[in-house]
Amino acid sequence: MRKLLNTLFVTTPEAYLGREGENIVVKVDNNVKFRIPVHNIEGIVSMGFMGASPSLMALCAERNVALSFVSESGWFLGRVSGPVSGNVLLRRKQYRLADDELAALELAKLFIAGKIANTKTVLQRALRDHKELINSVALEEAISTLAFKQKQVLTSKQPNELRGYEGESAMTYFSVFDQLILHQKDDFRMEGRNRRPPRDNVNSMLSFVYTLLMHEVRAALESVGLDPCVGFLHVDRPGRQSLALDMMEEFRPFLADRLVLSLINRRQISKNGFIKQPTGGILMNDETRKEVITTWQRRKQEEITHPFLEERIPIGMLPYCQAMLLARYLRGDLDNYPVFIYK
Length: 343
Hints:
Layout: E1 6-10, E2 15-20, E3 23-28, E4 31-37, E5 41-46, H1 54-63, E6 66-70, E7 76-80, H2 88-99, H3 101-129, H4 136-154, H5 159-175, H6 201-223, H7 242-265, E8 274-276, E9 282-284, H8 286-301, E10 303-305, E11 312-314, H9 318-331
Parallel strand pairs: 1-5, 5-6
Antiparallel strand pairs: 2-3, 3-4, 6-7, 8-9, 10-11
Helix pairs in contact: 3-4, 3-5, 3-7, 4-5, 6-7, 6-9, 7-8
């Protein structure tokens, strides 16, 4: 099993990434603020404006360290990649399957069914643990609707039909998401999912954490030799990480949504950590972003028993494990793709 290494997050806008031998260095005003050997990390996410040296980019490409650039709000901008690794026969099988509408639909159904199952679990846990603090009738209705949508997803006959059920299930889930916010409710209200730009504090955090998750999933797919741009649900588009977006679906409720709820309900962040832009969008300030990232890193170190592999693994290894299982399915080693469903 692959070892879980750290991801380096650079949040200072004036930071510049450079290289000194086998070390990655972070400089501000030409002064070294941080240094780490390249073999200690598996990824870098830079939110700075100054950029990175060509030498550092070459080092990351050589050592298979994922180097991503995102905006201040967490919007993905670009990524530096080295030579494509993995078995070319695996990628050719991936491309053939993606071009086969029926085969692609069967895989897409699993991604979405897994996502809906995990959203149900989030709501069921809230109902079980905090029934006296929430509108239990609304949550029970949402859970019942999601169970029905999951059945519809698994019997979908067309991609657009599947996307319709996925959209309806997401609307149902986010219509009661505000019920899961137990503390600081006046400061963290959510009336549905919105983005580009996010228009409230909760959506701002969700969009940011989804970007962190995207970085992890794309790196995992590339590490097993799959092409993250060729998916089965999301339509191909230049620059779009379609397969990474597909696989993210099953992880969003468990890895991202629960993290955001925990940060709010444990009062690790407050309304003072958010800034309203002239365009109406909401951004996190530097201190809040750091708190989110720190919690994300700690969460990745926690262990669970993988429901299919039946092994104890760090949560941060989930994207890699699922990418590995998807590769096994594409090779014909598994009869079906065992989507991640956490109870």
